[in-house]
DNA sequence: TTAAATGTTTAAAT
DNA sequence: CATTTAAACATTTA
C-alpha cells in the first residue's frame, strides 16, 4: 500500500537506527517473500553489516558491506518493523494495521532479521510483514543496481532535482492513456500511487479519465507540481498511514487529515461544495469532485 | 457471496 | 516493436 511518501518515511526512520547493525540471522517464514538463494544468503547477507537505507521509487535499498544491496518492495500490504532492546530506537511503518504494534512474529510475518550493534550493544529484530504476500526481498551486487531493468526503466524521482522535462517527455509517449493511468505508471514518474494520483488530479482540477493528448503541456506540468507538493506535505506529516510510529511514544502519520478527495466519497468538496464521488478508473477506486473535475470531451481522431 | 484493497507484473489485444 | 487494457498474484474484511 505505501506510496512514495510512506516508503520515504520508512526509509528515513530505518536509516536512523539500522546503519552499523550486523545481520546475525535471517528467519524465513515464507520463501516466496525472500527471493535470495541459500548460497547468496550465506555468502552476502549473514554476518553482513547494514551501511545505509536508500530509496528509488517505492523500492527500499539496504546497502550491505558485502558489496551487495537488499531491495525490498512493500507492495500493497508490506510493513517493516524494527524492535530494539533500546526501546526508543524501535520503529514501524508501512501498511497500517495492528501488526505495527502487536507481538511479533505473527502469522503475517514473512521474513525477519536478527540484528546487533557491537558499539551500542543494541540488539533487535527487523520484521517484514506482508498480509497479501505481494511484496518481496531481493539481493543484487551493489554496483549492478543501475543496470537492473527494475530500476532503470523507472521515471524520474518527483522530489529530487528537476523532474519536469523528463516527466513531460515520458508522459507524452502515452497520448491515449487516461491521465490517471499515466500517473500510476512508474515509468512516467516514480512513486505516485492511488492516493496521490487522486489528490493531484483534484488539485489540478482534471478529470482522471481525460486522455493525455487532451491536456496541454502547462496542465501536465501543473498536475506533476501538485503531486510533488502533496507528497512533500505528506512526508512532513509522517505519511498517510494512520499508525506509523517512530518510537515508543507512538508518533503517527497524519497526512490523511489533509486529503481532499481520497476516502471522502459522500462528503462535500472543500473547494466547491459538490459531493465527492467514487468511481473506477484504470482498474482502481478513484475519487473525484464532479464540480471541480468535469469530464472533458475527447478529441476525435 | 461479491467486491475491493495506498501495487506491480504479465498476458492479450490493438 | 510500442501502447493500452484486463487479468493475475494472495489474503482479509466490509
Which descriptors would you attach to this protein?
DNA-binding; five-stranded mixed β-sheet; alpha+beta; about 300 residues
Number of strands: 12
Sheet with most strands: 5 strands, antiparallel
Strand proportion = 15-25%
Helix content: 10-25%
Secondary structural class: alpha+beta
Can you tell me about this structure?
The protein is an alpha+beta fold. It is built from 7 helices and 12 strands. A 5-stranded antiparallel beta sheet has the order 1-8-9-6-7, covered by helices on one side. A 5-stranded mixed beta sheet has the order 2-10-5-4-3, covered by helices on one side. A hairpin with a 3-residue loop joins β4 (59-64) and β5 (68-73). α6 (194-203) crosses α7 (217-236). The structure holds a DNA duplex (14 and 14 nucleotides).
Question: How would you briefly describe this protein structure?
Answer:
By secondary structure, the protein is an alpha+beta fold.
Amino acid at each position: 500500500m505505501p506510496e512514495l511518501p510512506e516508503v520515504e518515511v520508512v526509509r528515513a526512520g530505518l536509516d536512523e537506527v539500522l546503519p552499523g547493525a550486523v545481520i546475525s540471522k535471517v528467519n524465513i517464514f515464507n520463501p516466496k517473500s525472500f527471493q535470495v538463494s541459500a548460497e547468496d544468503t550465506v555468502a552476502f547477507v549473514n554476518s553482513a553489516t547494514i551501511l545505509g537505507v536508500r530509496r528509488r521509487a517505492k523500492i527500499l535499498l539496504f546497502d550491505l558491506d558485502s558489496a551487495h544491496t537488499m531491495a525490498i518492495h512493500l507492495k500493497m500490504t508490506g510493513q517493516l518493523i524494527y524492535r530494539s532492546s533500546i526501546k526508543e530506537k524501535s520503529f514501524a511503518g508501512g501498511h497500517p494495521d495492528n501488526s505495527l504494534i502487536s507481538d511479533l512474529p505473527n502469522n503475517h510475518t514473512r521474513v525477519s532479521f536478527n540484528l546487533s550493534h557491537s558499539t551500542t550493544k543494541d540488539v533487535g529484530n527487523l520484521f517484514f510483514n506482508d498480509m497479501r504476500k505481494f511484496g518481496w526481498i531481493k539481493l543484487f551486487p551493489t554496483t549492478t543496481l543501475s543496470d537492473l531493468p527494475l530500476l532503470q526503466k523507472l521515471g524520474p524521482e518527483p522530489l529530487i532535482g528537476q523532474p519536469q522535462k523528463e516527466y513531460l517527455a515520458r508522459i507524452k509517449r502515452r497520448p491515449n492513456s487516461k491521465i490517471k493511468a499515466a500517473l500510476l505508471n512508474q515509468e512516467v514518474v516514480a512513486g505516485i500511487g492511488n492516493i496521490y494520483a487522486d489528490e493531484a488530479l483534484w488539485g489540478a482540477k482534471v478529470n482522471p479519465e481525460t486522455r493525455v493528448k487532451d491536456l496541454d503541456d502547462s496542465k501536465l506540468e501543473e498536475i506533476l507540481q501538485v503531486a510533488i507538493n502533496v507528497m512533500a506535505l505528506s512526508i512532513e506529516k509522517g505519511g498517510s498511514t494512520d499508525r506509523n510510529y517512530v518510537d515508543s511514544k507512538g508518533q503517527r502519520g497524519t497526512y490523511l487529515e489533509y486529503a481532499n478527495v481520497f476516502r471522502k466519497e459522500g462528503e462535500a468538496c472543500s473547494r466547491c461544495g459538490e459531493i465527492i464521488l467514487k468511481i473506477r478508473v484504470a482498474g482502481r477506486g478513484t475519487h473525484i469532485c464532479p464540480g471541480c473535475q468535469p469530464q472533458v470531451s475527447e478529441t476525435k481522431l
